[in-house]
Amino acid sequence: MKKNKESLPKKIDNMNNSTFTGFVLIVISGLVSFLSAVHGWQLHSYIFVITSFLIGIILVIIGQIFDIDILVKLKKIKIARGCISWIYASFFPGLILLLISQIVFDKYESVLIFVSMILFILTVGFLVFFRDPERNIGKGIVAVADGKIREISELTDKDVGKSILISTFMNVHNVHVNRMPFDGKIIKMEHKHGFHLPAFKKESEKNERTIIIIDSKIGIYKIVLIAGTLARRIVPYVKKNDTIKKGERIGIIRLGSRVDIYLPKKSIKKVLVEKKDRVIAGKDSIAEIND
């Protein structure tokens, strides 16, 4: 049986956004190549053509072969509250420098293009660092932060009493948004200024921190958000007297660091994580409560 061939408009209509955008970039790069060859190649022409062509090829492969509409997925990326200004601060200067590079003398052109590329790479980094994905909330007491469990110990805390400390180290590649581990009401919040030492070191006990004390059905528990070497800013999303549900966002430590949670020992049936385990905030259960 003979197959009916699709017309070009029909084929275009059936393309997903990634494939269509990829083909457009390839066509544009071909057009610029032709015009540049006619009028004489310059540095910015090479960079534009190569970059556009490679991005176009990648989008076509992703869209046509793997049938993934990456542009739709990018639209769904959520940026953490209070962080969009960081992305603007790198993207727009990069764009301005790239535009200026097209109208200045040749001796400055390559420098401006190089700096703009660095700023664009930084923008991509910030998009990764400040992503804020939705999470399926786990059972029991869930992790406050994405990262690696650095310490689990029993101690007597001045606010909680006999407690279990679970400490999580957040690296730069982790999601930096912190989430509520268990339903409760915030009864005290305190910000303490301090140093910015590496968060995985013992001396980090003197670092800048925000202390959140919560009253819940398992008793009083405490969360401590600790700044580190790169993490210079703790941004809380909550305040005293707020009632917060498990898994809701409570703040962000920009560019990672460390989060400690002090749980009342009498209410904990079992700790579900071990040292060096990797956890996801809001999703992974770190402790089981008594019935």
Label this structure with key terms.
eight-stranded antiparallel beta sheet, 291 residues, Glucose Permease (Domain IIA), alpha+beta, three-stranded antiparallel beta sheet, 3 domains, 6 helices, 14 strands, 34% helix
Written description of the protein model:
The protein is α+β, with helices and mostly antiparallel strands and 291 residues long. It has 3 domains: 1-76; 77-132; 141-289, Glucose Permease (Domain IIA) (Distorted Sandwich). Helices cover 34% and strands 27% of the residues. It contains 6 helices and 14 strands. The chain has helices at 8-14, 17-39, 43-65, 70-75, 84-100, 106-129; strands at residues 141-142, 147-157, 161-170, 177-179, 184-192, 209-216, 219-226, 234-236, 243-244, 249-253, 257-264, 268-271, 278-279, 285-289. The strands form 3 sheets. It has an 8-stranded antiparallel beta sheet with strand order 9-5-6-7-11-3-2-13, with no helix packed on it. Strands 1-14-12 form a 3-stranded antiparallel beta sheet, with no helix packed on it. It is elongated and about 75 Å long. The N and C termini lie far apart (67 Å). The relative contact order is 0.14. Mean pLDDT is 79; it is low at 8-14.
